[in-house]
Amino acid sequence: MRRLPPLASLRAFEAAARRLSFKDAATELGVTPTAVSHQIRQLEESLGAALFERAPRKVALTPRGAALAGPLRRAFDAMDAAVAEARRTPARRVATLSATVAFTAKLLVPKAARFREMNPDWDLRLHAADTVVDLAAGEADAAIRYGAGPRPGLTGAPLMTDLFAPLASPRLNLSVPADLARVTLIHFDWQSGVEGSTPSWRRWGEAAGVAGVDWESGVAFNDEASAIQAAVAGQGAALLSRTLVASELASGLLVQPFGPELRGFAYEFVCPEGAEDRPAVAALRRWIEAEVAPGA
To answer: Which residues form the HTH lysR-type domain (predicted)?
Structure first.
């Protein structure tokens, strides 16, 4: 027989510990801050230990509180996942994968029908966003992430390493790096959190040893998909991911007139730790590894 404190007091403590705010915990739980404080006081009395250090306008976990917070959060996450799974209709299950707008448009959308062929009992939902979704909160079952990490609370499987090269429409007739001085440079504003290692025209110019080009001039886009479209339309030369424009290179819409190439980071398929064997995650990973990874 389990001898547990009331579930309401454990929920109040877990929310307050996660947010380090009684007020924010109350908002999440739909109760008043006074009710949260009362529940936590009851829990502390039942345990015979203080769980928070209270100060004006802020709270902090005591060592006993910190030791309790981690296991409780994992327990509530497991309960949430179990309830969510139980609510799913067996005949219509949905697997949600998050990726950037460009990765979704260029690599996932063309392969979406194959997911249904491989998993006829599942529906696929593609969540395209350049902001990072909270997988632990259930915003998606899994995600494609790019960069060096670290990724606390997530487990990942590498898919491919990116290479960036100067690409342009063949209509621009670029043949040597010096030709870049006569065309518009297309830029993409990176927001991936890998500052200093992101591909840029200035980094490329240094690697190529090219002088006499204003590497900061040109047109900038805040999303990679728009930069790709601009290059295909012949509006200038762009430093683009060869992974994302493989089809344009194969069809001749874009060409790589010269090198060098800049090595990027790896794309990874990630999911919350411990979720690797969940049916939705397993279905998504099978599809990605079969259809999107190199050689697919």
So the answer is: 5-62
- Per-residue pLDDT for 246 more than 80? yes
Contacts of residues 86-93 at CB distance under 8 Å and 24 or more positions apart, as own/partner, are 91/121, 92/123, 93/121, 93/122, 93/123, 93/279, 93/280
In angstroms, the CA 129 to CA 140 distance is 12
Q: Answer yes or no: pTM beyond 0.70.
A: no
Among candidate residues 54, 87, 120, the one where a domain is terminated: 87
pLDDT at 253 (0 to 100): 95
Domain extent, residue 227, equals 161-263
CATH number of the domain residue 107 falls in: 3.40.190.10
Same domain, 114 and 67: no
* Residue 224 sits in the same domain as residue 195: yes
Query: What confidence tens digit (pLDDT) does each residue in 164-217 have?
Result: 999 999 999 999 999 999 999 999 877 544 445 678 899 999 999 998 889 999
Burial class (CB in 10 A: 0-12, 13-18, 19+), 111: middle
2 within some domain? no
With H, G, I as helix, E, B as strand and everything else as coil, classify residue 155: strand
- Taking residue 295's Cβ as centre, other Cβ atoms within 10 Å add up to 6
Half-sphere exposure of 31 (CA within 13 A, CB side): 17
Q: Is residue 64 part of a domain?
A: yes
Q: pLDDT of 10-63, one tens digit each?
A: 899 999 889 898 889 889 889 998 999 999 999 889 888 898 998 887 888 999
For residues 35 and 63, state if they share a domain.
Answer: yes
Stretch 282-288: mean pLDDT: 94
Alpha-carbon torsion, ordered 102, 104, 109, 112, to 10 deg = 160
CA angle 178, 181, 187 (to 5 degrees): 115
CA gap 228, 106 in Å, rounded = 10
Structural domain contains residue 1: no
Residue 199 lies in a domain: yes
H/E segment holding residue 219: strand 219-221
